Amino acid sequence: MTALMKIQSFIQAYVKAIASILDVDVTIVDNELVRVAGTGIYADEIGETVTHANFFHHILVSGESGSIMDSMADLNCKGCEKRTTCRELANVAYPIFKEGAVVGIISIIAFSEGERKNLLENRGQMEEFLKYMSVLLESKLYTDEAKERLEQQLQVVHDAEKGWSFVGDSQKMKEAIRIGKKVAKSNSTVFLRGESGTGKEIMAKMIHALSDRRDKLMISINCAAIPENLVESELFGYEEGAFTGAKKHGSIGKFELAHGSTIFLDEIGDMPLPVQTKLLRVLQESVVERIGGTKPIPIDIRVICATNKNIEQMVEEGAFREDLYYRLNIIPIELPPLRKRKEDLPALIEYYIAYYNQKLGKSMRGVSPEALQTLTSYDWPGNVREMKNIIEYLENIAEGEIIQLSDLPDHIVMRSGKGFEDWSLDEIVEDYEKRVLSSMVKKGATLEEKNQLAENLKISRATLYRKLKKYDLL
C-alpha cells in the first residue's frame, strides 16, 4: 500500500472540502498512478489506475508542477489513448513529496467551459493553493499534527471566500444589517427575503462571520442549481447500494459536511416537495438520515435560507409546505431592491469604481452629473449585481477618467429618460445616432461592408462616411 493510500480517508474528506470551497473538482493520485481521492466523476474511480496518464507521468518523473489549458491542443496530451474522448478541458497539478521523492499528485480539473475559464483567470492562485496543500499532505505522512495545519490552510481560503461588505446608508438597508448582526450569535434559523441580486448571500456570509461558528466553513447550496433527482442525495448523502450508480462506500451529504457550522440554502423555494419533508425532520430533530441508511446521524448546524419567490403564495398553492415555512421563517430579514434605496447609488458607484480600478488596473475618477442622474433614475431590475456588472463594463469601455452619459449602455439611457434635461433636441438625436452607428459598424469593417450598411440604412455612402468621421468611428 502506498503512503497516500494509508491515509486515504483523510485525503478524501479534505478533497471534498476543497472542492466545496473552490467550486471545482479535485483529484489525487499516488506514485503508481492509482486514484487515491476525487470528486465529481472521479469519485467513482477511487482505487483504480489512471489510464490516460501522460500528463501525470511527466509530473511524477520531473517533480515539477504542470498545467493543461486546452486538452485538445496541449503537448502533454499528445499520444494519449483517450485524447479524443477525454472530458477534461483543463488541469492544474502539483507533485506531493515525501523525503524528496514524488509520492503523488494533487490536481484541480475543469470539465466545463465555465470551470476552464475560472481556472485560467485564477491559475496563479490555484497553483499556489495546490503548493500549500502538497506541503501539508507531505507533513500528514509524518504526523497527525498536519491535520490541524491543513484545516488552517483551508480556513485561509475560506476567509477569502467569506468576505462581506455592505455599502450605503439607506434606512432599509441599515435595518436589515442591524437585525443580521443582532441575531448572528443565535442558533435560530434565518430566512433572507429579497429580489435576485440584492445581497442575500453576502448577508448570510456576514451572519456566519459574526457567529460563534465562524471558525468552520459555511456550506452553501443553491437549491435551484441542483437537478431535482439529485437534490436529496446532495443534501443528505447516501449509503453504498442505495440506488443504481451509487458509489462504493456511499457519500456524505452537505448537512453532514456542515456539522458544527452554518449551512446556507439559497433559492429554497425551488426545493422539491419530497425533499422539503425530509428537511423539516432535520430541522425539528437535528438528525440526518442518508438515502438507503437506517441510522440517524446527529448534526449540529445553523440554517440560513434565502429566496426571491413569494413563499406565502407558494404555500397557498400547495407548492411549499406550510409547516416548513413556519419552521424556516423564525427570523425573517428583508433585503430591499436597489430601486428602493437609490440614496445608496452614489456610494455604491464610488465603491465599485474603486474596486475595479484596483482589479483592472484602471484610474477612473468618477461619473459626470448627467451620467449619475441617468444611473440614479434607472430602476435596476438586476439590483446591485447588475450595477456591479455595469461599472465593470464602463471601466473597460469609457475613454476618459470620468464616465460620461455617452458611455452608458443604450438600455440604461433609454429606460432612464433622465440626463438630457440640458440638451437640445439636436444633441439628443446626435447622441442616439452615434449609439446606433457604433453598434452597427464593425471594427475594421471593409469597404464592401460599409457600402452594404449605407444601403441598409437607406443613405448614400458619402453621408455614411461623413457621419462616421463626425463620430470618430472610421
From TrEMBL:
Taxonomic superkingdom: Bacteria
SUPFAM superfamilies xref list: Homeodomain-like (SSF46689), P-loop containing nucleoside triphosphate hydrolases (SSF52540)
Record GO biological process: regulation of DNA-templated transcription
Annotated transmembrane regions: none
UniProt-recorded Gene Ontology molecular function terms: ATP binding; sequence-specific DNA binding
Pfam families per UniProt: AAA_lid_14 (PF25601), HTH_8 (PF02954), Sigma54_activat (PF00158)
Keywords of the record: ATP-binding, Nucleotide-binding, Transcription, Transcription regulation
Domain Sigma-54 factor interaction: 166-396
Family annotation (InterPro entries): AAA+_ATPase, AAA_lid_NorR, Homeodomain-like_sf, HTH_Fis, P-loop_NTPase, Sigma_54_int, Sigma_54_int_dom_ATP-bd_1
Keyword Lipid metabolism listed: no
Record has Nucleotide-binding as a keyword: yes
PROSITE patterns: SIGMA54_INTERACT_1 (PS00675), SIGMA54_INTERACT_4 (PS50045)
CDD domains xref list: AAA
PANTHER family: C4-DICARBOXYLATE TRANSPORT TRANSCRIPTIONAL REGULATORY PROTEIN DCTD, TRANSCRIPTIONAL REGULATORY PROTEIN
UniProt name for this protein: Sigma-54 factor interaction domain-containing protein
Organism of this sequence: Anaerotignum faecicola
Species classification: Bacteria, Bacillati, Bacillota, Clostridia, Lachnospirales
